[in-house]
Amino acid sequence: MPTRPASAPDLAPPPAPAAADDDVVLSVEHLSLDFRLRTEVLHAARDVSFKLRRGKTLCLVGESGSGKSVTARALMHIIDRNGSITNGRILLTGEGEPIDIARLRERGRELLAVRGGRIGLIFQEPMSSLSPVHTIGSQIIEALQLHRDLNKKAARERAIELLGQVEIPNPEQMVDRYTYEFSGGMRQRAMIAMALAADPEILIADEPTTALDVTTQAEILDLIKRLQASRGMAMLLITHDMGVVAEVADEVVVMHFGRIVEHGSVDDIFYAPRHAYTRRLLDSTVKLEQSRRAAPPADAPAPRVILAARHLTKVYGTTRSWFGRETAAIKAVDDVSFDLHAGENLGIVGESGSGKTTLGRMLLRTVEPTSGSVTFFGDGEPVDVLGLSRRKMRDFHRQVRLIFQDPFASLNPRMTVRDIVGDPLIVAGKASGRELDRRVAELLELVGLDPAMRERYPHAFSGGQRQRIGIARALALDPKIIIADEATAALDVSIRAQILDLLLDIQKRLDLSFIFISHDISVVRYFCDRVAVMHRGRLVELGPAEQICTAPREPYTRSLISAVPNPDPRNKRMLHRTRFTA
Description:
Layout: E1 24-36, E2 41-53, E3 57-61, H1 68-74, E4 83-92, E5 99-100, H2 109-114, E6 119-122, H3 126-129, H4 136-147, H5 152-165, H6 171-174, H7 184-195, E7 202-206, H8 214-231, E8 234-239, H9 242-248, E9 251-256, E10 259-265, H10 266-271, H11 276-287, E11 305-316, E12 319-320, E13 326-327, E14 330-341, E15 345-349, H12 356-364, E16 371-376, E17 383-384, H13 390-399, E18 400-403, H14 417-427, H15 433-446, H16 463-475, E19 481-485, H17 493-510, E20 513-518, H18 521-527, E21 530-535, E22 538-544, H19 545-550, H20 555-562
Parallel strand pairs: 3-8, 3-9, 6-7, 7-8, 15-20, 15-21, 18-19, 19-20
Antiparallel strand pairs: 1-2, 1-4, 4-5, 9-10, 11-14, 11-16, 12-13, 16-17, 21-22
Helix pairs in contact: 4-5, 5-7, 7-8, 14-15, 14-16, 15-16, 16-17
């Protein structure tokens, strides 16, 4: 891990590393962006300056709300109607005089030639960026015909060629498929193909791997870097993942509240950060590379099992032959068995489609298992969860609660925080009136929120605060077990560390057990005692978190760990990752 000074004075951002001006393809000079709100003007970016160089990658980093995405979109003049560039220049160099993108007329020919032509853009979420009613090929063909003088037949051939370049198998067939027929990684590859359709000089990638698991992320980053090198493109990568920055960046720009607080080479940023905000981002990243869970003493008594899963299987799409024989189409979960101990944090990790989320839902019976058993050992007699009636399932769901992945989508925007947190208490008949108000205030204090906020609506809170509200709701009925399904995936790294520390502190006070489902290995190492690794529905390895993360035994687990970005630019783990072939 990089070693850094424990403290250093906050200094003005140093100038960017020296480089030949001939290499500069785009220069941002003193850019300022404002957005007119109902009651105020939001200064989204202030006096932002940097340069993109041919064949080099500049990473723009910062937490949500720092201004990095809006700055990147301004380079293509993609700004909401209430926004405007109030100062500065965006100079695109090339043959002839430089073009100031900031001064181009909206929807004018010059600007349309820049968008998707000279500058390509990869969005964060391909599912919402690709049309669900048009084939992948037709969308690439449209981009080609917009920027290149090609007839439909030539454009189709070029689209197939592009899909092959981004390593989508069977491009001749996949060109006629729809978005829903592609996996998350394949959708992102299709987005890359579309961004590269007009052979751009600059590629802007806005959080291109945030929603992907670690192995798919490694493949996409590797693909982008190889395409960049072969085409000599300049790349602007927007991310909040400092591990990704260490793996791919040449230069780094750190933004905070709309301003650049630090700018330098990737080595300088990681080994000699000058600003307190940069150090905080790095400290949060390094913190999650270690475990906060102490190993039990050798003479500790055998742990008590609180939940036991045996031979859980979930089959989707079964078909019945003429002779009554059923044929399994897809085994989402295949013969999985494990125990959860009282007071333990068990991590479940794997790639997208490995079955980990389906497994979590089967434990709660929101998805009915095809076969197997789940036994809950609460305060009384063991409970056969799969044999419970709907009425008795309510009692089980009071003791086993769920924290959702997305803090924005999981809270009802029409309910106040008091109503959201208090709803489980009302439904269970546990509290009403003043007692309900008192209990909600207690729960908000427990998760570090001011009880005075309880009459506000979710839109008034940040992502981290919304996740705290979701945690308070999960704790309302004093559960024994909490299942957290990607509960920190949508959060910035510093907020992620805060939420994990909050959960660990609450666990000590309330004697909780956690099942923590995640594709983020660093989060699992930090939070969990043991880790279960899933691959294609099967449990391939189960062991102590430290052993799984540092000395995995199974080939698949080794490939999974080797794909995790290492937040150290002098030790790039992904360059030497191992690939698993089944």
